[in-house]
Each structure stands twice: as structure tokens, then as C-alpha cells.
Amino acid sequence: MDGHAITDERISAVFSGAGDFNRRELRVGTHIIYVYAIDGLTSGGDISELVVKPLLQDTRAGTIDELFDRALHSTVYNSVAVACEDADDAARKLVNGFTVVLFGENAIAFETKTGEKRAPAAPEVENTVKGPKDAFTETVRTNTSLLRRHLRTPALRLYETQVGRRSLTNVTVAYIDGLTDPGLVERMKKRLGEIDVDGLTTPAAVEEYVTGSRPTAFPLLQYTERTDRFAQGLLEGRVGLLVDGLPLGYLAPVDLGALMTAPEDRGTDYLSASFLRVLRYLALLIGLVLPGLYVAMAAFHPEMLPTALLQAIIESKHAVPFPTIFEILGLLAAFELLQEASIAMPHSVGQSLSIIGGLVVGTAAVEAKIISPAALIVVAAAGIAGFALPGRSFADALRLWRFFLTVLASFAGLFGLTLGALCLLVHLSGLTSLDVDYLAPFSRVSGCRAVLRPRLFRQKYRDPALHPLDAKNQR
Amino acid sequence: MKLVYILAAVALTASFGLPFREYDTGKLLPVRTVQAARTPQGVKIVTEIGEAEGENWQEAVAALREGASGDVFFDTAEQLVVCDSSLLPEILESGDLRPSAQVYEANELCDPNGLNEYLSAHESDRAVADVRYDLLREGRL
Questions:
Q1: Would you list the domain boundaries of chain A?
Q2: What is the pLDDT of residue A37?
Q3: Inter-chain contact A412–B76, Cβ cutoff 8 Å?
Q4: How much is the pTM?
Q5: Which of A216, A307, A405, A437 to mutate to test the interface with B (most CBs of B within 10 A)?
């Protein structure tokens, strides 16, 4: 398809049947020129004022090539004017909000993008108290401008490319020249270059194609809707990825330590932040193993429980017809269903659903002796602990492993649970993100730093696992 | 990596052959204090769950289990009160009680109600593990 000569027929044929495609024929002196634009992507006022008006006012005599040259270099006010290489280049420019003017066999694309786009708003998922309220939007150019406002360094590089044979999605790789490991940047560019798909329009498509669709539920890219977090990631030596149409930015490589940190950790003092991080790791453990541990202890090793606790569990289980294993697995499944249902519902209905599902049905089920209060408490505690984790993708992966560990515990008690935990450890040890180990922060002697938040003035060096060119971040 | 998963699957499959015992938690009847005494019929045991007699410890325990409304669970027993120390070898040989259970000696069987609380406040200086050690040294076990 590359290399087609630019003709009116060719461009019209590419967009034949497109209701939003505008074509206008203009007479400039003795010459006929054509103006093309896509309604909705372009601003009609800008086209009239900045492109059409100056062109029609050019009454000087000359050939069509001279008219083209004057339009490109003098007569037209528009700040961005690019000569099109061929018909396909012209078509690409049109779908990106440019106005293309055809002069004989040459064409110029003038940038006349419409200002109609969603304005940056406060983040919806990664809420912040003290942090900035300018979350990413669906427009990649808006996102790059937000990023530039956080990182004024001229060394910020924004490599732009298009991915998707049909979606032609604009993708931007962001990194800081002289800081980020060039190998990481090259790996990211290479992976983007290798993607040959129809469309790159969903987050799952970006994550799977960029990371190579590894057989894991754990995220190998970190996403964020917060620009400050994205900027901080770049300052740490990570590579950023912005995809047009997605109101979030991706950071790579990612490891377990990064997924367990919240942007608010840098918005509070190091003692509070460290305390919260320790709590978060506890929540990770509780969310992951508590249901399995309860099944193992209650069904296989009750002798390991203090007698008073065992007595309490026995009393709570009294008259409940289901074995502990089915009770826990059933409650876990119900919890997941409730969660899925509340996500699918509108916000106001979702809240009602949580109240009805969680409180009314839960209480009724306990009173009717269908489930025991102890099992309900265990599953609810594990669920709440899962919500305390900062990364949703990571928490979702843990939900899956929670089921797996509970099933193993229901087969072989603590032995099964330990076996499952070992499998998880082996699985995580084998994961890499852009060739950086997933458990990298914990493989060093200073592994505790991944858990605690050191005082900022002592955090002088960037993460060595990222191989930054500039290892030191402060004096 | 695949080898690890295969090994894990093999280990899990093999675990079915291990002597795991699964309990129905709702039916457990945890015992906290066990009293044992010699009687003309053999051995009598008294717990919070109930009492039973048999020719020896094992039979008395079996009789207690048989007469109980649920699954009598000795692993939670915190105190063992024996009225005749000659009973200790057979009780310990059965392995029914956990090593940390406190051992007391008494002249006669008592009312089990409130006994656990009383004994908890008056900790013994000997546990099942200590008695087992002594008996092994003496060659009685």
C-alpha cells in the first residue's frame, strides 16, 4: 500500500463511504486545489481561518508547484505544516486531526486538531489527598503535555510510533535521555515494533502484546492514571508507555516492590509510609493465605489451634450443614461474584448491591446457619486485605492464587498450602519484566528497603536492577 | 519451571497417601481435661464430654467416643489428672494426648466442671513430654 501517488481520486477512494470525511474544491487563481479534513477530529474554524483563508488570499501568479511552495513556507499561518510523502501518509495525517490540502500531485498536512477532548481530572482509582489532581486522559498528546509539566527536563524523550494495522494507535515511549538504560528503551521499542495486530485499543492488548503474553496472572507492566507517579517512574529509570485512547500510562520494568508501593508513600513522612507499607505486606499475606490457612487448620490440624479459638470455631460451625472446605470455597466464589456484579453495575446501583449482597444476604445466611460466622469473617478479612493492595492487577492475580491455595489446602492441609506457596514463589522467581527479575528488590541484601520507605535524603541511588546511566539521584 | 510444577503435582498426588485426617469441625468435641483412675472394671476416664469405662485406657477411650454425640477430640487436652500413676505408661503409649499437656496426680476423680479453670491457675511442674522422658529413662515405656 505504501508509495501511492497523491491524487484526489486516491484520497477520496480511501475515505469513500466515510460520513465524516469532508472534501472541498477550491479555485486559487487558475489552479484547483482540494481541501480534505475529517469532521470531529478537526476544528472547522481553524481550517477556515488558518488554512483556507490565507490560501484564497494568495493571488500571486505562478505554477501549482509555486503555490504549493508558498503554502508550505509563507502564506499559511498554521504553525504545523508537513509535506505528505504519499497518499497513505496523507490518509494517516487525516485520521490524526490534520487538514490535507492537495496541490496537483503534492499535498501539505496542516495541524488543525479540534480542542474537544476530555480535560484532565482527578484520578478516579488512585485517589490522592496531597498529590496532583491531573490524571491521564484518553488523548496521548494531552498526556505528554501533562508529563512535560511534571518533568521540564529537555532530556525527556517521547518516541512516537503507530501500532495496529487497522487501529493505527499512536503509542509513545517516554524515557529520560542520559538516565534510562538504553537497553530498556530498545527492548520496549523492539517489542512495539514486533506487534502486528489489527488493533491495540484495550489495556489487555497493550499488556499482553508488549509483555509477550506470559502464562501468568501477575502484571508485567505497571499502570497508573497518576501523572506524578508516571513521572516518578521515569525518574527512577523506568520506561513509560502512553497509548492513545487509554487514560493511563504504563511503566516498565516492574517488580513486586514497585507494585506494593503507593504514590502516597511519597506524600507522607517516612515513618507513616513505612508503617503503611508493612501493613500492606501483611495484607498481602492475609489476603493470599488466610482462607487456605483456615481450611487447613480447621479441617486438618485443629490441634494446632488454641483450645478457646477452636471452641469458638466449633460453636460457630454448629448446625452448619456444609464442610469447612465447601463453605470457604463457596464464600470466596460469592465474594468474587459480588465484586464482579458491583463493577458491572452503575455506581449508585453498585453500592446498593454491595449492601444487599454483603450485609443483608451475609447476615441472613449466618442466621439461617447456612454459613458459619467464622468462615464469613475469614473470607471478608481476606477480601478487605486484598483491597488494601495498591495495584489492582496485582490484587487480581492474588485473588486467583488465593483460590488455588485454598483448593490445595482443602486437599492436603498445611502440606498443600505450603506446596502452593512454594509454587507461587517459584513462579514469581521465574518472572521477568523487560528482562528485570520480578523479585529483584528482595534478592539483594538491602531487600528490606523494598518494604520500608527510607528517608528521602538517604535514598541517594536509583534501583540498580534498572541499570540507570545516572545511578545517583541527589548529592 | 515446568519440572517444578510437575514435581509439585506429584507431591500433591503423593500427599493423598499421607496419613492426613480430615475433621468435620462442627462435630468436634474438644476435651480440655482428662481424668483417669483404676477401677475394679479396669480404667475409668472422666472428661467434660462425659465419662466411660473399659478394661484398659484404649477401651475406655473407645467407649467414650462411642457414647459421644460428636467426634471426641483429645488433641486439645491441656491437663491429665491420674489417680494412679501406674496408668501413665499405657496412656502415654496411646499417643492420644499432646506433649505439652500438664500432668497432675490426685487421690480421686473430681467433678469435671470448672476443673480446667482451676488447674489452669495451678500449673503443674510436669508435662506429658517430661513424664514420657522419665518413663523412657526408667525403661517403663
A1: 8-111, 140-252, 266-433
A2: 95
A3: no
A4: 0.82
A5: A307
